[in-house]
Structures are given as C-alpha cells and as structure tokens.
Amino acid sequence: MRSRAAHPDPAWRGRITATAIALILLWPMLVASEFKPWILFDAQSLNATWNFLAAFFPPAHSSEFLALMLEATWQTIAIATAGLTLALLGAIPLTLLATESLSISRLESGRMRIAGAFVRQCARWLLVVLRSVPELVWALLLVRIVGLGPTAGVLAIALTYSGMLGKVYAEILESSEAHASEALLQNGSSRLAALFYGALPAAGSELVSYTTYRWECAIRGSVVMGFVGAGGIGQRMDESMKMLAGAEVSTMLIIFVLLVAGADLVSTFLRKRLG
User: Fold this and answer.
1) Which of 9, 42, 71, 221 holds its CA 20 to 30 A away from the CA of 213?
2) CA distances from 55 to 41, 51, 158, 239 (A)
3) Percent of residues in the chain assigned helix, strand, coil, to nearest 5
4) Considering the entire predicted model, what is its pTM?
5) What is the pLDDT of residues 171-228, one digit of tens each?
6) Distance CA 120, CA 112 (A)
7) Burial level of 245, CB count in 10 A (0-12/13-18/19+)?
C-alpha cells in the first residue's frame, strides 16, 4: 500500500491552530474598536478623499511661506533637542538609583540594605509614572499651565523621555558586563565614577544608539504635539488644516517627511560610527 506523502511543513497543524486562536481573540477587539475598513471604499468617502487630496496640488511654495516653514522646522528641531537634553538630566540620576549593579551595599554584604532597596524601588516607580503618560497628554496639560508655545512641548518631551531613557538605561547597564564597575565600587569608588569609568565603556555604544533613536522619536513627537498648541511645524499645520489650506498642508507634509528622513540618516550615521 502506498504511504501518503508527508506535508512539507511538519508544524502546519500548530500554525493553523495558533492562527485560528489569534483570529478568535482578535475578533472581539476589532468589534470593540469599531474597525470598519470598508467605509473607505464607500462612494461618499471616495469623493471626500478626492476633494481633500485635490486641494494639495500644487504645494504652496511662495518665498514668504517657505521662510515661515523654515522657522517652524527649526523650532521643531529645537523643541526635540532641548526636551531630550532635559530628559537626560533627569534620566541619569534616576538610572543611578534604579540600577542594582551599581549598589554598593549589595557588593559589600551580598544583598541591598532595606533603605537602599526602598529608594531604588521608588526610583523605578517614578520612571513608570513618567513614561506611562504620553508626551501628547503632558503637552495638553502643560499648555493649560504655561500657555501655548514651545515651552509646553519641551517640558512634555522631558517628562516622558526621562522615564523612557531611565528605564532602558538601567536595563542596558544591568545586562552589560559589570566586572569593571564592581571592581571600582569595591575599591572605594563612588557610583557616579563607577558609571562613567566602569559601566559606560562596556555599554556606551548601546546607550548612545538608543539615545539617538529617542532624539529621532522626539522630532516626530514634537510635530504631533504642535497640534495641541505646543509650537513647531505641527502647530502651523493645525492652523492651515482649520483654514482648509490644502496647498500649505501639502508643503508641510513634504517638509515633515524630509525632516524625519534627515533625522533617521543622522541617527543611522551615529549608530554606525559607534557600532
């Protein structure tokens, strides 16, 4: 009797089962989110899409408008850079507190003191709180406090990104080679010196790579925060969209794409140089 040929994928039953389970679990979420992609192909939606896109051409290109966009683009980069700098000032001390491998008491006795463990846990909770609130929400709150303008965007990025940077920095330092920093701590060095001369040489490229990636994200975030009045090119785009100035919005979208592409090139260049 001729035996049946084996299936080319021996794990096909498991793959089909996993796909079916994923679809069963995903369906209630799609229903709850009211996801209806077929609406995009409705005649009324297609007509509205055509009218919206037709207003984009040709893009606005007057010298006065481009000068205004240059100023707004520079402001967007400045918001992202200043916000990330402030975030670093908050993330570095929190990283020192949250990183267990830099604990002097743990090296001396094999376990951290209760007070040290409590401070470390408080630092971790603070990092959770800071990164749990998106920068857009911080911007909404800060616009009410400090008013419209770039200040709200800078502070929003600083608050959220200090939590993100501190968490990831601590995880990178925990997972990196700790012999050098432990040797420095055992010989009476401070935690700050152990960080700069022991931990950073071992994990420096990874830390810088993540920081440049976050700078790229901060540029995108600063554009989005402009829609709530936090300055930059996003705020200009919001004003043009409210006035139905499609040509101006088209130019801003092109600038936005070029801005993000440029930030990505800078980030990639730095990663390769430090890799």
Assistant:
1) 71
2) 20, 7, 37, 16
3) 80, 0, 20
4) 0.76
5) 887 776 666 666 666 666 666 676 666 666 667 778 888 888 888 889 888 888 888 8
6) 10
7) middle
